[in-house]
């Protein structure tokens, strides 16, 4: 395939047998399979996730996304009695959220009454504005922070059709910052016991936050992938984490991103957290502290400045996540790894198996 074709959406399509889409997580978390891919040699190995310890060195820094999935799925009723489903997407203020709305005739000025089960309660949401497609800006009579845990439901990706018996299974064991509508799935494979083994091995840990929006599941629809618009997501890389990353690099350790969301935070902080232009490279610091929104869109041709290795799941075709992986490991190797995963019976997507790209 010619390099120019790597910007064509068709290059990121593939056929996946439906039975390869994981409908439930394996137990324990670290019993999932792990494909290990060496970018330098092209070698592919097949392991169990808990064996990742063998590929990490003392002095390496694992960077995790500590976001926590909120119970963002709500149900409401129109004045006519019609039922409406709400999915909170992005917080604008304490009482105002953008939400995806499933229901007819939901226009600005409409007042929705929230439901607890099938019972109306004394909480309301007024539609203030329309956004793209089903997006609506809602103003709540009482900020959701006080009642969301009681009324809301954890939203699962649309390709998962089995109910989740334990909502905590869609959270990482280190999740602590509420704000996402989807889990950073690469982190779902870690157990407290595995983290303890890694720490004993000399691997260090650092945390960033990126609150994941539904854009993570939105397929690219433009024939040229460069024309796709990535929505903004809020993220933070603290001064303490920036110091850990910079010190690790100076001491010869590797920065290992746990998931594509961490890649986006680190690469954003490598460009904008240092206070220099995106074209400049700081010779003595890898990243600087950063807090704000990012719309960093990574596809083949991107130059990585902060990430040395990546732990990630197997992603949807025609997705921005797949493009990020192709940019990091190289398109041809990505295609070969995915073809191998399908042939070897790996489980795909949120509750699926993982890949370590070195």
Automatic annotation (TrEMBL):
<dbReference type="GO" id="GO:0008616">
    <property type="term" value="P:tRNA queuosine(34) biosynthetic process"/>
</dbReference>
<dbReference type="InterPro" id="IPR036100">
    <property type="entry name" value="QueA_sf"/>
</dbReference>
<keyword id="KW-0413">Isomerase</keyword>
<dbReference type="Pfam" id="PF02547">
    <property type="entry name" value="Queuosine_synth"/>
</dbReference>
<comment type="pathway">
    <text>tRNA modification; tRNA-queuosine biosynthesis.</text>
</comment>
<dbReference type="InterPro" id="IPR042118">
    <property type="entry name" value="QueA_dom1"/>
</dbReference>
<dbReference type="InterPro" id="IPR042119">
    <property type="entry name" value="QueA_dom2"/>
</dbReference>
<dbReference type="InterPro" id="IPR003699">
    <property type="entry name" value="QueA"/>
</dbReference>
<keyword id="KW-0671">Queuosine biosynthesis</keyword>
<keyword id="KW-0808">Transferase</keyword>
<comment type="subunit">
    <text>Monomer.</text>
</comment>
<dbReference type="GO" id="GO:0051075">
    <property type="term" value="F:S-adenosylmethionine:tRNA ribosyltransferase-isomerase activity"/>
</dbReference>
<protein>
    <recommendedName>
        <fullName>S-adenosylmethionine:tRNA ribosyltransferase-isomerase</fullName>
        <ecNumber>2.4.99.17</ecNumber>
    </recommendedName>
</protein>
<dbReference type="GO" id="GO:0005737">
    <property type="term" value="C:cytoplasm"/>
</dbReference>
<keyword id="KW-0963">Cytoplasm</keyword>
<comment type="function">
    <text>Transfers and isomerizes the ribose moiety from AdoMet to the 7-aminomethyl group of 7-deazaguanine (preQ1-tRNA) to give epoxyqueuosine (oQ-tRNA).</text>
</comment>
<keyword id="KW-0949">S-adenosyl-L-methionine</keyword>
<comment type="similarity">
    <text>Belongs to the QueA family.</text>
</comment>
């Amino acid at each position: 395939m010619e390099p120019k074709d790597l910007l064509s959406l068709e290059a990121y399509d593939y056929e996946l047998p439906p039975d390869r889409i994981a409908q439930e997580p394996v137990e324990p978390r670290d019993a999932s399979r792990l494909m290990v891919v060496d970018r330098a040699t092209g070698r592919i190995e097949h392991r169990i996730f808990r064996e990742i310890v063998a590929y990490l060195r003392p002095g390496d820094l694992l960077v995790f996304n500590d976001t926590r999935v909120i119970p963002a799925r709500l149900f409401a009723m129109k004045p006519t009695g019609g039922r409406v489903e709400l999915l909170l997407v992005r917080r604008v203020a304490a009482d105002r959220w953008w939400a995806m709305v499933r229901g007819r005739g939901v226009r600005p000025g409409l007042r929705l009454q929230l439901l607890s089960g099938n019972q109306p309660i004394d909480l309301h949401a007024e539609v203030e504005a329309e956004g793209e497609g089903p997006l609506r800006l809602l103003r709540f009579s009482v900020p959701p922070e006080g009642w969301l845990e009681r009324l809301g439901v954890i939203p699962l990706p649309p390709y998962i059709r089995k109910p989740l018996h334990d909502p905590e299974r869609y959270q990482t064991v280190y999740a602590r910052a509420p704000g996402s509508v989807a889990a950073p799935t690469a982190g779902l494979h870690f157990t407290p016991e595995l983290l303890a083994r890694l720490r004993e091995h000399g691997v260090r840990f650092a945390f960033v936050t990126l609150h994941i929006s539904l854009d993570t599941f939105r397929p690219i629809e433009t024939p040229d992938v460069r024309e796709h618009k990535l929505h903004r997501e809020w993220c933070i890389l603290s001064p303490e984490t920036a110091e850990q990353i910079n010190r690790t690099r100076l001491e010869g350790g590797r920065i290992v991103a746990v998931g594509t969301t961490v890649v986006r935070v680190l690469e954003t902080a490598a460009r904008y957290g240092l206070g220099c232009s995106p074209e400049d490279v700081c010779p003595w610091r890898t990243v600087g502290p950063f807090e704000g929104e990012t719309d960093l869109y990574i596809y083949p041709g991107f130059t990585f400045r902060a990430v040395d290795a990546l732990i990630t799941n197997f992603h949807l075709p025609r997705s921005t996540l797949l493009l990020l992986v192709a940019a990091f490991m190289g398109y041809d190797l990505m295609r070969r790894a995915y073809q191998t995963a399908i042939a070897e019976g790996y489980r795909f997507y949120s509750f699926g198996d993982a890949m370590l790209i070195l």
